[in-house]
Write a structure and sequence with these properties.
Blueprint: H1 5-16, H2 21-31, H3 38-49, H4 58-76, E1 85-86, E2 89-90, H5 92-96, H6 98-117, H7 129-140, H8 145-154, H9 162-187, H10 192-219, H11 222-225, H12 231-234, H13 240-244, H14 246-262, H15 271-284
Antiparallel strand pairs: 1-2
Helix pairs in contact: 2-6, 3-4, 3-9, 3-15, 4-6, 4-9, 7-9, 8-9, 9-10, 10-14, 10-15, 14-15
Bound molecules: geranylgeranyl diphosphate (GRG).
């Protein structure tokens, strides 16, 4: 599959590149290391579902991947999950040292907001900028992903209820999936009813994504995961597989993907978002 995100990153990089080489390299290392690019694809596909030019979503697509890459760099640090491998390559802190990796994460995080807003960058404006910046900050920050990560760390070694686990992962993983769709909807000027449906779709998809991730952590190979399988268990993480068992967790993910599809029915063109649901379903099959 062609990576539509990398050319955007390369286009923007000369305008924002830091002077210090290791920082610049560490940022580029993480942004160009591959990955499925699910979040940017969700932005563009949401624009397409609303029958608007997907380039209107370019700023948002880059912004959500910048936040995602920062979160992975920080998640791999010794103080968090302490992972030496990410996407089949040495994690950022293994390649560039802990200090530069922390700074690279910080830089990608802040840059995401500049990418959304800076008129000097050669990208189409997103439209309602105040809405877009607020949505991204809410979902990425202490109301969203950062709190999810904190709750997840606190839950290590515990057995949270299904409701608590949904809440943790709704924030940790789900919030960035949700905001990818929300930003696509802002770029596409979705009316409030369509926005509501898209957000319901994104919430369901985000939960499916996390349940699947837990299943794949058990059933996937080291190559397909880009890291050793079973790492959640090694860290004493509370997972949907731990709570429901492998088979029920897998069925739960299937049911959530089917429910996500139901939310798409009233869109002008559901096919681009349906294609993402299908791609995720194929991951598990
Ligand atoms: C450090 C603030 C902070 C947050 C970290 C995203 C995250 C929160 C942690 C990642 C840990 C993890 C494995 C979460 C499960 C679901 C998930 C987000 C997987 C990684 O996303 P993918 O599969 O990764 O989209 P690629 O490599 O394809 O981009």
């Amino acid at each position: 599959m062609t990576d539509r995100l990398l050319p955007l990153w390369q286009q923007v990089q000369p305008h924002i590149g830091p002077q210090s080489e290791p920082l610049s390299q560490a940022m580029h290392y993480s942004m160009s290391a591959g990955g499925k690019r699910v979040r940017p694809e969700l932005v563009w596909s949401t624009c397409q579902a609303l029958c608007v030019d997907p380039r209107l979503g370019d700023r948002a697509a880059l912004a959500v991947e910048l936040i995602h890459c920062y979160s992975l760099i920080h998640d791999d640090l010794p103080a968090m999950d302490d992972d030496d491998l990410r996407r089949g390559q040495p994690s950022c802190h293994i390649a560039y040292g802990e200090a530069q990796a922390i700074l690279a994460g910080d830089a990608l995080n802040t840059l995401a907001f500049q990418v959304l807003a800076d008129p000097a960058l050669p990208l189409m404006p997103i439209g309602n900028l105040a809405h877009a910046v607020t949505a991204l900050a809410r979902c990425a920050g202490p109301q969203g992903m950062v709190d999810g990560q904190s709750l997840d760390l606190l839950a290590e070694g515990q057995t949270p209820s299904l409701a608590a686990l949904k809440q943790i992962h709704g924030k940790k993983t789900g919030a960035m999936i949700r905001v990818a769709v929300e930003l696509g909807a802002i770029a596409g000027q979705a009316d409030p009813l369509v926005m509501q449906r898209l957000i319901a779709f994104a919430k369901t998809l985000g939960l499916a994504f996390q349940v699947q991730d837990d299943v794949l952590d058990v059933t996937g190979s080291n190559e397909s995961l880009g890291k050793p399988s079973g790492s959640d268990q090694g860290l004493n993480k509370s997972t949907f597989v731990g709570l429901l068992g492998l088979e029920s967790a897998s069925q739960f993910a299937d049911a959530l993907l089917a429910e996500a599809t139901d939310h798409l029915s009233a869109l002008p063109d559901p096919k681009p978002l349906q294609a993402i649901v299908d791609k995720l379903a194929a991951r598990q099959a």
